[in-house]
Amino acid sequence: MTKKLRVGVIGAGIAARHLIGYDWNKDLFEVRALCSLDEERGRELCAKHGIATYTQNVDELFARDDLDIIDVSTPPDSHYELCKKAIESGKHVICEKPLFGSIADVDEMSRIVARSDKKLMPIFQYRYGSGLQKLKLLIERGLAGRPFMTTIETHWWRGPAYYEVPWRGKWATELGGGLLGHAIHAHDMLNYVHGPCAEVFAYGATLLNRIEVEDTMALAVKMQNGSLATLSMTLGSRKEISRLRFCFSDLVAESILEPYTMGRDPWTFIAGTEEHQARIDAALAGYEAKEDGYTRQFELFHQALMEGKDPPVTLQDARNSLELVTAAYYSQRSGQPTPMPITADHPLYRSWLPEEQQRLVANA
């Protein structure tokens, strides 16, 4: 019989989407409690998803001995402390993006998790779209060839109304702008396909909204595997698109343009010859479709816990993602290419917030 894991959720915003993922995995998970300071939304979610307990006291979740997992779906500035308390209370953790506010926090959390028998899984649910999974299949079968160029566009729209939510658009609470909070999924897909980045040169600016953080950036990236990438992000695109295009010596893979599900089918896979196209088409014909998004990531997390294996998305995956963010902010401010990995002697290792913002946070 499959063991059903018991979940406590913190948050009532993006948590609504997590709850749909748990509902699609009712044989694997039971959400027993939800904690949110927004009572109206919190109670509404409890009623909708049949959650027995609503609370505004997060310590109640940590103290319960009938929960296996704490799901952290709160604004970014609270992630680290909540994850730390959850692990130390003997729970596994699922945490929304962006994971934390510095590489130092990721490294310290890795040490905390290593001292426990618990697992922490960052959220990168976009990985599990069928289009991207088909590309991974073709790479694994040796049908893609040598990678040399990737282009990624995250061109979305966020107007003034979006930033009326008090924690958005501020360094202290959102921790960054569109590079960190919006393009991070597409950029994780870059790392998921090609591995870690080696160096970045970045331009960034706040061009559209009256906010503290960036809403437009352009990055040129060298990958450790020798390929190159160009990444662009704006929150001022009246037509929202996300586009990923992977160029290999033996094929080009291109995503759909739908801004929030760009990992899903139908992707196109174009080879250079009819013979190789036939091999690609034959491989794709045997692809076994799975659920995607949170549903699939949660399913894989359950499997990993049952088998005593690492989560499908690891702390190292989150580190790779946040290294790109850290390096891009440093390049933007210094005007210089910035190599990776980001180590403890890097000026932004402990925080990428501007110095004046670090002082404000420290004195708060």
Structure characterization notes:
With 364 residues, the protein is an alpha/beta fold. Helices cover 37% and strands 23% of the residues. It contains 13 helices and 14 strands. The strands form two sheets. Strands 13-12-11-7-10-9-8-14 form an eight-stranded mixed beta sheet. Strands 3-2-1-4-5-6 form a six-stranded parallel beta sheet, with helices on both faces. Helix 1 (15-23) packs across helix 11 and helix 5 (103-114) packs antiparallel against helix 12 (315-334). It is globular and about 60 Å long. The termini are far apart. The model has no long low-confidence stretch (mean pLDDT 96).
Strand adjacency order, main sheet: 13-12-11-7-10-9-8-14
What shape does the CA trace take?
globular
Termini separation (Å)? Answer: 50 Å
Q: Give the overall average pLDDT.
A: 96
Order of helices and strands: EHEHEHEHEHEHEHHHEEEEEEHHHEH
What is the makeup of the main sheet? 8 strands, mixed
CA radius of gyration is 21 Å
What class do helices, strands and sheet pairing give?
alpha/beta
* Tally of helical runs: 13
Care to count the β-strands?
14
Report the portion of residues in β strands: 15-25%
Low-pLDDT segments, ≥5 res? none
Helix content: 25-40%
